[in-house]
Design brief:
Elements: H1 39-49, H2 54-64, H3 69-80, H4 83-90, H5 92-96, H6 100-103, H7 105-108, H8 114-145, H9 152-170, H10 174-199, H11 217-234, H12 239-243, H13 252-280, H14 286-291, H15 296-327, H16 334-354, H17 358-386, H18 411-425, H19 447-463
């Protein structure tokens, strides 16, 4: 249904289509004449965001759980297949013309959606901190190669440099991120290809790492799958943020394919390098271990690649984080909301760098991320299936109408969302707690599958045929 049909009009906002001007759109509807994104642009957005060293760390971690080369690669392929879910959530972007956490108001209600928006914001800020830490440590190593002595002051200066690069680009918005990720994809992708050329010949197919104490082979496989799946799952709450500039009639399957391949190709190849490196040498220190496998001249170059990859990844984290803040009702321009993220992301990074154990914090963060994102995605996709992927562009933005439900809350959706998290936690294993069913999994973790299944099937089965999942569109009217 068009705004004119309802007597409504969208606020007049300056187009944010130029890469070198600050995007003025936030979570408002993107006018059709500004939908200039192409499918190949969407591919490069996700490709550039995923040419990151985190996947090397993931590959090292899963071997550290006790997996030999072939089981580890099976986990890499299975885990990254979840980028298909990201593609499915991205279809709503051009259909509704707005950000992901605004679209999910259709499922949870205008007010009830605030819970997911808040968790989405925290998750994005957490990933910002993870990438800032990895980028900072890489930059410290790079500066040390130039003969500078490492100390806390050097760490702090490198931290500030990473922060400036990350948030400086994000302030400009969607068009700048699209341009930067496309250009940097070529550079970072080439650097990673050369890395593989040096690492792959050193694979030790006969390496059989010792499993973690108290963890069976099945448990180690499930824990490894959790780690590898956490990366694609962590993007589920922001797919439409980047697809919303596509024309409305863009093919859904093509959106899924462009998004999935953009994330899956680099993540599989880079995780493969991490697995290979972990079978060849001690990678307890993922950056220091890599140095033993590379010629010194290329190690310095690849440290720069790591820095660049963490920055490109954080363009998306920061952008989507600001979208979540605006969805929560923050009354300010998108580029101003970025400063709030910069402050919190910096504080979390300082804690991880100077106070806590980064590896333990990282694994716990992945566990908690999966625990809420999978049931959220389950409810969202079930709702989208029931309404056949169509949304009322006006009602998503107002406190009345189709998505108001009961005083802004869709109780069944929130109930199944909570049920998914609660049941999933019973199958979750991390350093914070072990669910009661973990013992039957050999110390493994099935929380992501269980939480998604409970939320998706529960909501879909109980809401079939209900009128409040029907919608009208401009085409229908």
């Amino acid at each position: 249904m068009t705004s004119e049909a309802k007597g409504q009009s969208w606020p007049s906002e300056e187009s944010g289509s130029s890469a070198f001007t600050i995007e003025q759109h936030g979570i408002d509807f993107i006018p059709h004449d500004e939908r200039t994104l192409r499918l190949r642009d969407l591919f490069w957005i996700w490709f550039g965001a995923n040419v990151i060293y985190v996947y090397v760390v993931d590959g090292v971690l899963i071997v550290g759980f006790g997996l030999s080369f072939w089981p580890a690669m099976a986990v890499v392929l299975l885990g990254n297949a979840f980028y298909a879910l990201l593609g499915l959530t991205s279809i709503a972007g051009p259909r509704a013309g707005t950000a992901m956490l605004v679209v999910s108001r259709a499922a949870f209600g205008i007010v009830g959606n605030a819970t997911a928006a808040f968790l989405s914001w925290l998750t994005a800020v957490g990933w910002e901190a993870v990438n800032i830490v990895i980028g900072t440590l890489s930059l410290v190593e790079l500066v040390q190669l130039a003969g500078v002595h490492a100390n806390n002051m050097l760490k702090l200066l490198c931290l500030l440099g990473i922060i400036l690069m990350t948030f400086g680009v994000t302030i400009f918005g969607h068009a700048m991120i699209t341009l930067a990720n496309r250009v940097l994809s070529y550079i970072l992708g080439f650097g990673t290809l050369v890395l593989g050329i040096y690492i792959v010949p050193k694979i030790n197919l006969n390496a059989h790492p010792h499993p973690l104490a108290g963890i069976s082979g099945t448990g180690a496989f499930l824990l490894a799958l959790l780690v590898m799946t956490a990366a694609p799952v962590s993007w589920l709450n922001c797919g439409s943020d980047y697809s919303r500039y596509l024309p409305k009639k863009t093919s859904g399957p093509k959106i899924v394919l462009a998004t999935m391949l953009g994330g899956l190709i680099p993540s599989v190849l880079i995780a493969f390098v991490g697995v290979a490196a972990a079978t060849a040498t001690d990678m307890t220190n993922p950056i220091g271990g890599l140095q033993r496998l590379l010629p010194s001249w290329f190690f310095a170059i690849y440290l720069a690649v790591i820095v660049g990859g963490t920055v490109t990844n954080n363009f998306l984290n920061t952008y989507s984080s600001s979208m979540s803040l605006l969805t929560l009702g923050l009354k300010m321009k998108r580029h101003k909301a970025v400063f709030i993220d910069a402050t919190l992301g910096t504080l979390l990074s300082v804690y991880a760098l100077f106070v806590s154990n980064f590896t333990n914090s990282f694994v716990n963060f992945l566990s908690l991320t999966v625990l809420w994102l999978m049931p959220w995605c389950g409810v969202y996709l079930a709702d989208s299936l029931l309404r056949k992927g169509e949304y009322d562009e006006i009602d998503l933005h107002r406190r009345t109408g189709l998505y108001w439900y009961r005083k802004g809350w869709n109780i069944p959706a929130l109930a199944w969302f909570a049920a998914g998290m609660i049941v999933g936690s019973l199958f979750s294993s991390n350093t914070l707690w072990d669910g009661p069913f973990v013992r039957y999994l050999g110390g493994g973790d099935l929380s992501l599958f269980v939480s998604f299944a409970v939320a998706f099937l529960g909501y879909w089965l109980t809401r079939r045929g209900r009128s409040n999942v029907a919608t009208t569109t401009s085409e229908a009217n």
